[in-house]
Every structure is written in structure tokens, then in C-alpha cells.
Amino acid sequence: MRYLLGLGSSWARLGVRYCHQSVWSSHRTVRKVGVDLGEKKLEISTGKLAKFADGCAVVQLGETSVMVTAVSKTKPSPSQFLPLVVDYRQKAAAAGRIPTNYLRREIGVTDSEILTSRLIDRSIRPLFPAGYFYDTQVLCNILAVDGVNAPDVLAINGASAALALSDIPWNGPIGAVRIGLVDGEFLVNPTRKQMASSTLNLVVAGASHSQVVMMEAAAENVLQQDFCHAVKVGVKHTQQIILGIQQLAREQKVVKRTPQKLFAAPAEMVEFARQLAGDKIYAVYTDFSHDKISRDEAINKIRLDTEEHIKEKFTQAEPLEVIEAFNVVSKEIFRNIILNDYRRCDGRDLTSLRDISCEVDVFKPLHGSALFQRGQTQVLCTVTFDSVESSVKTDLITTVLSGIKDKNFMLHYEFPPYATNETGKMGGMNRRELGHGALAEKALRPVVPKDFPFTIRVTSEVLESNGSSSMASACGGSLALMDAGVPISSPVAGVAIGLISKSNPDKPSEIQDYRLLTDILGIEDYNGDMDFKMAGTNKGINALQADIKIPGLPLKIVMEAIQQATVAKREILGIMNKTIAKPRPSRKENGPVVENVRVPISRRARFVGPGGYNLRRLQAQTGVTISQVDEETFSVFAPTPSAMNEAQEFITEICKDDQELQLEFGAVYTATITEIRDIGVMVKLYPNMTAVLLHNSQLDHKRIKHPSALGLEVGQQIQVKYFGRDPTDGRMRLSRKVLQSPAASVVKTLNDKQSITIGTGNGQNSSML
């Protein structure tokens, strides 16, 4: 191990060490760099594995290792965007487990894998050159997991290293770390155990010059100043990782390929489109009477007319160039109105919210419901309670990686095509819907009591969409929870902040001027440089997701966005509180009920029934769900109070056993055989009793293999001695064998309180052998 060549002690101070191994394989040298992150060391290596890929890197922290490959085609794709695919897979073998599905193979993709894939995609996508429309695939393969260090952040760094070490055009590298907050102390890449007690889970990806490329956070009401400090700590540590990857790329003498073509409209075509349509587009964007539909229709009409004229003048132009020429002009005019005139296309100033209206208890039969409308974004949220048994059970691999075994709160987000006046396929879950739902769930989960007796499912259906539907889901979900009577600790609201920036002509990576926009429209997201979503309570931050579309954002702008979102969030909460300010004191009358039923061990066998027959019958007939809490307590969940009443009557009838109270320990009773089994006979001491097993070992002193050896038959009456119930499992203990001895016994009948003495002996009590 030696310090990086040519950089002297400055690299040592930054905690970056470089190791060069003279191992040649397929003309690639195996190289490794170490980065100190506080008390931990991150290692990045390349040149040993997957050498046919354009780029490959292995990132290791502790004993957790992730290999990431990057491959990009050399022929352009016909698409009008970067066809980038990121796949992150959790391999069972890496966690020391075997998949639990029927085939014992990795089949399908879990929610956790999809969300991590999105995290990586949002981190690397902004740094691809504009107009690079070549199929590109980044695959993250977990090699080993130690159960201590999470692999997801390693995969982001691996993707950065793989792209930086390849010949794929990419303006990286980036670095990524996770920041936790435990007892007021900020931790860099905390362990799984530390994260269990952390109030913050912040993943930040940074670019050179301390710029932010991506942020995602889940928090428990973290104060704004603490959150901002965590972002700064994270960005600081990302710079060390960037330096390490840059040194690897220099040592490998990486030369980026020159694409056949970066798709962009020719300057003369753009100028022609500007002359034809510039004034018309400006008129539409400054006509504040337009809504989403009418504005889109007006722009589309201008587009079609302009494109026809462009095709007539530039007969050799490619279709993509014609489309892009108009898009460039439209986007430029839209952004300049905001930058120069401080006006937005709907007439608002830069920090104003759209009109907000709230409604709760929309549908009476539901456990909770709310309708949240912000401008032309409308979201219907519902709350459903179910038994604790209905909680989400995570797969074994996710449990090993994150430690979460199940969760009793979930939010599901739906975005049907009619929400944007379109048609499309229904059913299934796409990555976008999953990501938006996960963000809204992060915002609401911290305020839901952990000991709430039900599993809670919040659904958010977007009925109209014109920007920020995920944050509308957080607002609507908070209202619906309060309407349902869930004692949440504080109401939650969310807002999206946008950005329109102007780069420095001399240094394109620097931002010369910018405007932050509160509560952005869909078109402001599309034409803007950032979608900065933040949700929380009046006191602190619960969730944040920053989608940044430019190669990096200075910390100054990030801090301003957090402050602007905080002001807007409090304003939204004030509007929401006018509709409902705190949870209802009780759940609705038609809501579910959960009660604990105590069943003595002596009655448990009768309560459960043979093979659980009584429990299954109870659940089928009444619709309740029963789970065992401890030895004598069962939890009964009923969807309605009437179902609970029906279940209670059923349970009372099942456990009704007055005759058994008359049984005396050590007395002899006449039992009737109801069934002959290989291991013994089933007997009843009285007609309405549940038959119990009298084992072969208790039938006679002789060892027998089948009751028929004693000539026993169904319907036959035999004498048995009663020894109470087993204290561990509640089973009735009977024996016929002990009566074969000469000891004196007393025969009891349940209909006659008189006792009859039979047999003679030495007067000592017989015992069960």
C-alpha cells in the first residue's frame, strides 16, 4: 500500500490511499483504492472480474461486496431520451440463504430492489451528456453480505466507478454515503444495528466541487438545522470517494469513446423555429387563463404547424431533429419568462402555493377517507384497518439486509392514465408508482403509533395530476389517518420545490443565476432542473427526495430549497388544519374491533378443536381473525362490531363446559370409545365433550401395537381414571392401564353424585405410569 503518486500528503489528509497490484489478466491491471470514511474503510477495485464489460468495479465495506458493470451500445437507439436501465439484485447466496420459492431460484424483483435501482438511476443519469441516446445498462450484483454493512450505497459508488473506468461518455464520477443520526451524533455509513436506533436515514450522492446530485431521506421529525448539517457531512465525505475513483481512472488511462452523434437540433433549425413560433409560444405561456389541458392543446397546435414548416425548409432533417428544434425553443421561452420576468405560466409568483381544498369522511363505509386538491392535482386517500396478521412479511433476503421482518403500516400509490387525460394499461405496479408510494409512506410512517393494534393500509389514487402527486398523497394520507381516528403524533404535509437555472457561459458546470419555485406544476417539472420533494410535520422533516436533472447543485441552493419547502409546508398544514386539526377521538362505529380473549389451558383444546377445526370454523363463519398472544390469551380481530359479537357468542358456546367442572382428579369414569386409531382410541366421558385420545401406552400394561389387540371396538364403554389436564398443553389426561392393578378406585358418574367403590387393595392411590 502506498500513497497516491504525484499528490503528496494532500491525498493522505483526504483519507484516500491507493494500492497497485501487478497482476495482469486479459491486458487489464488489477487496481485497488482505499477511502477512509471516519472509522471505516471503503475499498474500490477493478480489473479482476467481468472484463468483457465496458466498465466493472467492485466496492467493499467490511465484508459486504458489490460488483457493478456498465455496458453501452455503440449504435444509437431510435428513442428520444437516454435509454438507461439500472438493475440492482439481491442474491440469496450472497446473504447465505436459499430462495424460498418453489424453484429455489431468484425469481421476480422485490420492492426493495426496485427502489434501490431507482436510487442508483437518479444518481448517475444527470451526468450523461445531453443527446446521448445509446442503450446503456448498469447491473449491480451483490457478491457477499456480512449483515452489518448495507450494500445499496456501495452499489451507487460501484456504478459511478464502473462508468468512470469505462469508455462510456459520462461526466462523473460521483460519490455516495448514508448518514444516520443516533443520540445527536451523525454517523457515516452506519451499521444495520446503528440504523435500527437512528432517527435519520439520508443517502446523498455528490459530484465534484461539493455539489449534490441526488438525495433521498427518511427521518423521524428531524429538525431543519440537523438535517442541513447531515447533508453537509454527507457531501464532505462523498468528495473523498470521488478522488479515489478519479485516481483509478487516471492510472487506467481511461479514454472516452466519441459517439457517432449526440442528438441535438442544428442551430439554424432552432433559430428558424424561434422566428416562426417564438412569439406564439410566449403568448401561450403568459396567458394565465390557461389550465393544463388548454395550455397543452395550444402549444401542441403551434408545434404541429411549426414542425410542418421546418420539414418544408429542411427536407433532409431527421424527425428527431425537427421535434427537438421546437422543444428547445419552447423550453427556452418558458424558462426565460421565469428567470427574467419572475412570472409563472399560471400567474403565481415564485413562492406562492396553488389553491388548496381538503375534504374528509368522503365515503361513510370506509374506515377513513380524504380528498386533497391542490390546483389541478387531485388525490383520493383511503385508510383500511386489518388484523396484525395482515402486516407485510418481507422476504428472507431483505430481512437479512435491512433487519425489517414485517411492517404494519403501508401506503400504496396508484396513477391511472385518466389522471392525465390519457389511455393506457391498467394493473400491475410500475417503478414510478412504487417509488412515489414509498416516498409518501416514509413521510407518514413516523407519526403512526408503533403499538397501534391494527395493520394500516393507506391507498392514494391520483384522480387528476398536474405536478407533485406524491406530496399530495402525503397530505391526503395524513387527513385520511386523522379521519380514521389513528392517533398520529402530528399532521404531515409535503411540497415540491422546482428550479430554473442559467449556467455560466465560461464555465458550464457553474450556475450563474437561478430561481426556486414553490409547489411546481407538471410543466415546471418537465422544463425545470429539479424536483425537490419534502414532507414533514410543523416541527421537522420526515421524508425528502431530490431529483436533480443537471450535473450538480451547489449546497447553497440545496439549503435554500429546504428553507423554502419548510415555509410552504407550514402554510399547507395551516390550510389542512381548518378541515381537521387532530385525529378523531375514536374510530368510526363501523370500524374494526380487536379484543383479547383469555382461554384457560384446560379449555384450550376445546377452543382450538381437533386440528384447529373450531378456530377455522369460527373464522369462516364470522370473518374474524384469531392469533395467539401467549399461553392463555388469544387476540380476536373483527372487521365490524357485529362480527365481534357473533364471534363472542361462538367462543362462549365452544368453551361452555359445565360438566367438566364436575370431574374430580383421581376418580374413575365410564368412557365411550368413538374412534379406533393406530396409536390409541378416541373416547368421550360425556356426550357433548370433544373426544380425546387415550394412547396405546395407557390402555394396558402389555405393550400393544393396535387397540384391536385388546378387542376394543367403537361404541364400547371402558373404565378410565382422570388425572386432570396437562399444565403445558391443556390436554385431558386419562388412563385405563392404572385400573388393571388391584388398587381401590372410585367410579364417578356425572349424573349421580354418589360414588361406588370397586376393587380391593392396600388402600394406596394408583398413579399414571
UniProtKB/TrEMBL annotation:
GO biological process: mitochondrial mRNA catabolic process; mitochondrial RNA 3'-end processing
Entry keyword annotation includes RNA-binding: yes
GO cellular component entries: cytosol; mitochondrion
Record EC number: 2.7.7.8
Record's keyword annotation contains tRNA processing: no
GO-annotated molecular function: 3'-5'-RNA exonuclease activity; polyribonucleotide nucleotidyltransferase activity; RNA binding
Keywords recorded for this protein, A-Z: Cytoplasm, Nucleotidyltransferase, RNA-binding, Transferase
Ranges for domain S1 motif: 666-737
InterPro entries assigned: ExoRNase_PH_dom1 (IPR001247), ExoRNase_PH_dom2 (IPR015847), ExoRNase_PH_dom2_sf (IPR036345), KH_dom (IPR004087), KH_dom_type_1 (IPR004088), KH_dom_type_1_sf (IPR036612), NA-bd_OB-fold (IPR012340), PNPase (IPR012162)
Family: Belongs to the polyribonucleotide nucleotidyltransferase family.
Protein name as annotated: polyribonucleotide nucleotidyltransferase
Gene that this sequence comes from: pnpt1
